[in-house]
Amino acid sequence: MPSQAQILPGTLDLLILKAVSLGPLHGYGVLLRIEQISGGALLVEQGALYPALFRLVRQGLLKASWGTSDNNRRAKFYELTAAGRKRLREEADGWNRLATAIASALNTQAEEV
Amino acid sequence: MKLFSWARSVVSALLQRTRVEGETEEELRAHVQHRADDLERLGMTRTEAERRARIEFGGHESFKEECREALSTRILEVFLQDLRFSFRMLRKSPGFAAVAILTLALGIGANTAIFTLLDQILLRSLPVQDPQQLVLLDLVGHPYGNSSGDSVLSYPMYRDLQEHNEVFSGMFGHRSTTTSLSFGVQAERVRVELVSGTYFSVLGVRPALGRALTPEADQVPNGEPLVVLNYAFWKERWGGDLGIVGKTLLVNNRNSTVVGVAQAGFDGVEADRAANLFVPIMMQEAFMGERKTPLLTDRRTRWMQAFGRLKPGATIEQAKAALQPLTHAMLEMEVKQPAFNHASAYDREEFLKSWMNVLPGSKGFSYTRNDLTTPLWV
User: Fold this and answer.
1) Which residues does chain A have within 8 Å of residue B61's beta carbon, measured at their own beta carbons?
2) Are B184 and B195 in contact (CB under 8 A)?
3) Domains of chain A by range and CATH?
4) Using one digit for the tens of pLDDT, what is the confidence trace for B255-272?
5) Which of B43, B95, B182, B330 has the most CB within a 10 Å radius?
6) How does pLDDT run across A32-49, given as a tens digit for each residue?
7) Residue B139 has pLDDT above 70, yes or no
8) How far apart are alpha carbons A75 and A25 in whole angstroms?
C-alpha cells in the first residue's frame, strides 16, 4: 500500500465531484470512494468533508436527498447537478493541464534547455 | 403580492434554518454509524466500534459550527436577493407601492395610538410607592341627597372612615375640577386637583422642589391658599424656574403661594386627566362655589373620592369585610339626622342597604376606563 498523502488545498472539491459523478453517494460513501479511486493514496479528513459538501450544494453543483444506505440506515445522498458536471469537466481539464505542465517541467533534462 | 412572497420567504428561511440544523445533526450521526458498521465488520464489538468511529470523526461541534455558518450566509444571501427583487418590483409599480406603504403607515399609526390609550388608561400603574396597595372606596346603594361623580363620598364620611378604619395605613381624598390661573400677563384654564393634606404622603409622592402639602393643610376650612405644581407643567410654563417656591400665583382670582413642585412624572390620580395644580381640599369652597351647607360638613352631598392604602399584607377582601360594620354604623347615624325627617320608610330602608365596595386603585381613577375597557381590548 502506497503511503497516504494529505489532499492539496482546493482539490477536495474536485475529488468530491469526481467521486459523486460515478453515482449518488452519502457522506461516508464519498470518503470511501475517494480512498478507493485514489488507490488508497489520498486521505480525506472526516470532519472536513461536510463543510465542503455543504459548500458544493450551496453553489448548486451538488444536490442532496434523503435515502436508505446499503447498511439499511437513513442517510443523505449527494449527486451531481448539470452545473456540477460542467464544473467537474472544467476543473479536471485545468488540473490535467497543470499536472502535464509540471510533469514536463520536472522531466526536463539539462541538454534540452 | 410581492410583499407577501417576501414575507413568506423570510419565514421559510427561518423555518428552514432549524429544519436544516436538525438534518445536519442526523447526517453526521449517520456518518458515524456507517463508519462504526465498517469497523464492526473488521471484528470490533459494536460499542468499541462506535467509540472508535466517534473519535476518528473528531471535532464534531466545531465543524457543525462551520456548517451553520455556511447555512446562515446562505439564508442571508437569499434574503438580500429577495429584498432587492421586491424593491425593484415595488419601483416598477409605484401606485401599488404607495398604497401598500400608506396602508402600513396608517395601520401602524392607528395601532400605536390605540395602544398608547390602552397603556395609559388600562395598563399603567400610578407612578407612586407600591401602587398595588391603593384602593378606591365605592359606596354602593341608594344615596339620599346629591351625588356628583363616580365612587364619591361626602367629606364628613371620608373623615370618619379615615379616623376609625383599621385596615388602611393611610387615606386621602381628592376631587378634580378646572379653574383659572394667572401669572404675569398670561391667564389660562387649568385642571386642579383638590387634595387632602395626606394625599402626597399616603401616595408616597415626594416633592421635586420645595415641599408637598402636609396633614396640617386639613385643619382649617378656607385656610391658607397653597399650591403645589405639576412637574411637567412647571417645566413648560416656568421653564423649570428654581425660584418658583414662595412666589404668588393668582389661582381662581386668589393669591396663592407656591409651596413646591411634585415628583416628576406624577400627574395626579386620574389616569386620563392630568392635574396642573394641587391645592388643599380645604379650599374647595373657593373652587366649587359657596353653599348653604358647606360641602366640608354636609353629609347629604357626595362629591369627593376616597383612596386608602392597605396595610402591608392586607387584601381587598379583608378591607371590604372590615369596612362594612363601620359603614353601617355611619349610615345608621346619618339616617337619624334631621335631613331624613321627610324621608319615606322606603328611602330609609334602601339607604340602609348601602354597602362599601373596595376597588383596586393601583391605576388611579379614570372616568373613561369602564367605557373604554371592552372596545380597547377588542
Assistant:
1) none
2) no
3) 5-108 (1.10.10.10)
4) 999 999 999 999 999 877
5) B330
6) 898 888 887 777 777 778
7) yes
8) 9
Assess whether B155 and B218 both reside in one domain: yes
A46 CB neighbours in chain B (<8 A) are: 31, 35, 56-58
Same structural domain, B295 and B362: yes
CB contacts, 8 Å: B31 with chain A: 26-28, 46, 50, 75
> Could you report the per-residue pLDDT of B61-109, keeping only the tens digit for each?
666 666 666 666 667 777 888 888 888 888 888 888 899 899 999 999 9
Are the beta carbons of B57 and A46 separated by less than 8 Å? yes
Count how many residues are written for chain A. Answer: 113
Residue whose C-alpha is closest to residue B297's, from B352, B337, B347, B252 = B337
Say whether A28 and B30 touch across the interface (CB within 8 A): yes
d(CA B255, CA B253): 7
The answer to whether B84 contacts chain A (CB < 8 Å) is no
Rounded to two decimals, the ipTM of the complex is 0.80
Chain B residues close to A50, C-beta within 8 Å: 24, 27-28, 31, 63, 66-67
Radius of gyration of chain A (CA): 16
Does residue B155 share a domain with residue B63? Answer: no
Domain that holds residue B373: 131-377
Where in B295-341 does DSSP place strands (E)? 301-302, 305-310
Instruction: Indicate the number of domains in chain B.
Output: 2
Q: Are B69 and A53 in contact (CB under 8 A)?
A: no
Residue of A nearest to B78 (CA): A58
Q: Kindly determine whether residue A48 and residue B63, on different chains, have CB atoms separated by under 8 Å.
A: yes
Block residue for cell numbers 499536472: A99
Look up residue B22 and give its three cell numbers. 436538525
